[in-house]
Amino acid sequence: MNLALRLRLVTTLSATLEFYDFTLLIFLASAISNNFFPSASSMGNIMPVLIVFFAGYIARFVGGFIYSHFGDRYGRKPYYMNSMVLMSLSTLGIALLPGFDTLGDLAPILLFCLRVLQGASLGGEIPGSVVYASEFSQNNRRGLVTGLIIFGVTFGNILASGVVWLIHQQFGEAAVNDWAWRLPFAAGSMIGLLSLWLRYKLTETPVFESLQQKNQTVVPIIALIKHYRLQLVQGVSLAAVPAVTVSVLFFMPRYLKEYAPQPFSWASISFFLFSALAICCFIFAVISDWTGRIPMIRLGAVLMTLVAPISIYFFSQGSIPTALAFIPLVISLAMVNGVYEASMVELFPIEARFSGVAFSHNLAFCLFGGATPLALEWLCSHGWLLAPGILPAVASFILLTLSFNWRDRYQDQLAEV
Questions:
Q1: How far apart are the first and last CA of the chain?
Q2: Element (DSSP H or E) covering residue 119
Q3: Highest CATH level, class, for 1-217
Q4: Rounded distance between C-alpha atoms, residue 262 and residue 322, angstroms
Q5: CA 238 to centroid of chain Cα atoms
Q6: 233 falls in which pLDDT band (50, 70, 90)?
Q7: One-character DSSP codes across 121-135
Q8: Do residues 131 and 76 touch, judged by C-beta distance below 8 A?
Q9: 175-179, 254-258, 273-277, range with the lowest pLDDT
Q10: Which residue from 134, 64, 60 is spatially nearest to 344, judged by alpha carbons?
Q11: Phi, psi torsion values for 286, nearest 5 degrees
Q12: What confidence tens digit (pLDDT) does each residue in 263-303 have?
């Protein structure tokens, strides 16, 4: 297998597995609650599971900072390898962890710790993937290789929901709550070893090797704060749009149940919508290699600003089919989501690239992705039923405004950025 094909396979598969492992917890929240937070314990019901889930988002930022700092100082490959090891072992730990009946209050504490390790791994994995793949790719292929990673991220969410559905069909609700919930975690951990094996023969990126030959010893976080504050603001604004909008899509089951009841299940169309999002992201990423990133970002931001409130309005009224209401939202999101990783890579120079991408990506998803469901719950409960459309529109408008002072580097050599 040649290097280019191996690299694309590894980064896509890795992104899929990382998000598969990371999102399993929320799809299996009921079973996790029964095993680690039974009503007999002082911690009680489903809320502690949601807190544990959110802890992974906080850990993403911390883990991304640590991985990216050393990745910028000592090389991309070692920390790209280590992030998958950490995710595989922490996911296997969740699969094997005895429940509350066996360990008592120690069980949820250990679950929390393993979740933090998962989050730390993810914080280094996705930025590491896009930096590693971009620095190995040709100038006119950066959109393609990072688009494959975004496709893998989205497909990981689809895969996790599909596997959870499958075990419910195969074993039934009682068995899933008792023991079968462990199977998806164990499978994810084992498949992670395949990804690790595929990574083994990868080498350090030529772009980073050129930095080593110059004997530069810049401390990444200091370089970011001193010289690249504008790029950090731009990077966070880029990642904020997918962070907010994907959180809106995850909020839809709650929205349907409490605020805009409709005669169908969200699960019946979510597979279609997320599949369409994954495919469109890849298509727009490839197109951006020809047209540039900024035109795609601006068009996506304009469309999102305009169509997000309209889509949610028609969805809440039930006046048109749900798929038709959400397709414009998915397409406009895909324009930004497909190119934002490549754009962030092109914002930062070699010595601070991993740190800049990780900081921007993880801060946006930690802050905006984590806070959006809470904000939506509060706004909708106070009668602001268009909030799921307004928040993505606001994030997109901010990105659109910032994009007018933005140099498009889609044809530049990464070693010269």
A1: 30
A2: helix 106-136
A3: mainly alpha
A4: 10
A5: 13
A6: very high
A7: HHHHHHHHHHHHHHH
A8: yes
A9: 254-258
A10: 134
A11: -65, -45
A12: 666 666 777 888 899 999 999 999 999 999 999 999 999 99
CB 164 within 8 A of CB 267: no
DSSP H or E segment with residue 270: helix 267-291
Same fold for the pair 1-217 and 219-417: yes
**Amino acid code (one letter) for 408:** D
Q: Which residue type, as a one-letter code, is found at position 295?
A: P
Cβ atoms within 10 Å, residue 178: 15
Closest among 88, 105, 98, 102 to 13, alpha carbons compared: 88
Using CA atoms, how far residue 213 sits from 32, 210, 217, 248, in Å, is: 50, 5, 11, 46
What gap in Å lies between CA 408 and CA 220, rounded to an integer?
23
DSSP type of residue 264? S
Residue type, 219: V
Residue 95: other Cβ atoms inside 10 A: 18
Which amino acid type is present at position 93? G
Tokens of 48: 């502690």
- Give the per-residue pLDDT at 213: 55
| Nearby residues of 367 by Cβ (< 8 Å), 6 or more positions away | none
Spatial separation of the C-alpha atoms in residues 416 and 408, rounded to whole Å: 14
Q: Which two tokens stand for residue 314?
A: 């028609």
Residue 58 has pLDDT above 70, yes or no: yes
Closest to 76 (Cα-Cα) out of 63, 67, 89: 67
pLDDT at 41 over 50: no
Neighbours of 91 (CB within 10 A): 30
Helix (H) or strand (E) holding 412: none
Spatial separation of the C-alpha atoms in residues 380 and 374, rounded to whole Å: 10
Work out the average pLDDT over 17-29: 82
Domain edges within the chain: 1-217, 219-417
Superfamily name with CATH number, domain 219-417: MFS general substrate transporter like domains (1.20.1250.20)
